[in-house]
Amino acid sequence: MNLFSKFVNRLGLVGTPRPGFPPTAPRPSPIFVDPDNIEEQITPQYCAQRFYPVRLGEVINDKYHIVSKLGFGTSSTVWLAWDVQRKWWQTQQWVTIKMLTRSASGKSTAETELEVSRLVLQANPLCEGRQYLRTVIDSFEVTGPHGLHTGLVYETMRESLKTFQRRHRERRISESLLKALLEPVLHGLDYLHSECNIIHTDLKPDNILLGVESRHAIEEVVQAEIDEPTPYKVEDDRAIYCSRNFGCLRGIPGKPKLSDFGLAVRGDELPLHFHPIQPNRYQAPEVILGLGWTYSADVWNLGVMLWDMIENTSLFDAETAEGDYSVQRHLEEMSFLLGPPPEDMVNRGDIAPRYFSSEGGEILQHNCEPARGASLEASLTAFSGEGKPQYLRFVRRMLQWRPEDRATARELLKDPWLAR
Fold first, then answer.
1. Is 237 a catalytic residue?
2. DSSP 115-159
3. Catalytic residue among 34, 62, 83, 202, which?
4. Full-prediction pTM beyond 0.70?
5. Residues facing residue 82 across a β-bridge
6. The CATH number, out of the four listed (3.30.200.20, 3.10.310.10, 3.40.50.300, 3.90.480.20), of the domain defined by the range 1-158+212-267
7. CA distance 192 to 261
8. Tens of pLDDT along 3-47?
9. In the chain, how many H helices and how many E strands?
10. What angle do the packed helices 387-396 and 296-311 form, to 10 degrees?
11. 83-124 pLDDT tens trace
C-alpha cells in the first residue's frame, strides 16, 4: 500500500473520495476547544464567508486530493494535494493549491497570476532567469457555500525566505549564503523586467520561496498527517485547520524562486505608474512622493529587503511611537542614512515640499533620531573586513533616491561583491 492509499484509509475512505468530502465524515483528530482565533482568522478584516471551506480529504475539481494545509494569508489558504489524474509519465505528482478568497478571485490576483505565468513561460524559454520564477501550472474554479472561488496550482515549494531566515543564529543570513540566494533572485528579476516587461511591486521575504530538497520531504509531511492528524476547530460551516510545515532541513534546499505575481503590472504599457505599491517599509522614495515609478522600484525594494535579512532588523523603522506607519519618519530615516534627496526630486510634485526644503533637500522637521545609526555604514553590524565596503557599495547601487540612478538587476549580477 503506497503512502497516498494510507492517507485515504486513515480518513476512513474507500478508493478515491468523491468531490465534496462530506463535512460529517469521521476524522481522527483533536478539535480545538480554545475559542481564540487561529490561522486565517487572525488576518486583518477576516470574514469567513470570503474563504472557501477546504477540508482535508476533499477532492477539488475532480483532480486534486487535499492532503495537508501549508499556510494562509489575507486572500488565500494554501494546501498540499495529490494529483489523482496524473499519468504515469508525468513527473508532477504533489502540487500546491492556492485557494483564493471570493474578493481575490478577480483581475487583481488570479487573472494577473495567470497572465504573468503565460508571459514568463513564453518570453524566452532559453533564458537562465526563467527557472527562478514560480508560475501557475493549472487553474480552476469551484463553487463554495458563499460564491465562486479560483484555485491556482503550483509546484510545491518548501518555505519562504522569511521562514528560512528563522532557522539561522540570531535570524541573520550570512554573507556567503546571501550571495548564493541573491544570484538566482537577480536572474529571475532580470528575466521578469527585461524579457517579460513585468514589475513585481511586492518583493519581500514571504514572496521568495525555496524549493523542496527532495521528494522524501513531501512524503514525510504526508506520513506525519497519517500518524498525527492536524488539529482543527469547527466554525459554523467549516473547519479551520492548523498549517503543517516541512520541518527541519534534510539537505540542501532547492533553488529559490520569485513568486506571488498577483500585484504585478506591465512596465511597457505606461512610462510611469502612480498607484501605491510595496509594503510600507519597502516603499521606494518615488512611490512615497507620488512621482511615478517603474522597474527600478523593484530594485529599491530588493535592496531594503536584503539589508533586513542580513541584519535581522528593518533598515527603516518608519513608525510613530503608537506603532503607526509615518511618511514623515520614513523620509527622515532615508535622509539620515542616505543623505538628503536631490533638489530635482524635491521640486517635483506636491508631496515632497511638505517634508523637504526646496534648496538642498533638507528635512523640514526632525521628529526622530536615526533608527539604525547615523549612516548606512554605521547600520551594518553583521560583518566586517574586506566584504563590508564592497557590500555597502553594492547596496548603495540599489538604494538611490533617483530611480534612474539605481543599477538594474542585470548590472547587479556583475557587481564585484557578488562575484567575489
1. no
2. HHHHHHHHH-TT-GGGGGB----EEEEEEETTEEEEEEEEE-EEE
3. 202
4. yes
5. 65, 94
6. 3.30.200.20
7. 10
8. 555 545 555 443 344 333 323 334 456 687 777 889 999 998 899
9. 13, 13
10. 150
11. 998 876 666 689 999 999 986 555 568 889 999 999 999 999
